[in-house]
Amino acid sequence: MTDLHTLSWQYVVGLAEPADLPMAAAHLLAAGLDSPALRDLAGRPRGDATDELFREALHELGTELPDEHTADLCLLHHLAARLSAGELSAGEVAAEVWYRCLPGDTEAEREFLDTIGPEYWVETLSYGPPEGYQAWKDSVRAAAERLCRAEPPVR
Question: HSE on the CB side for 99, CA within 13 Å?
Answer without folding.
Answer: 9
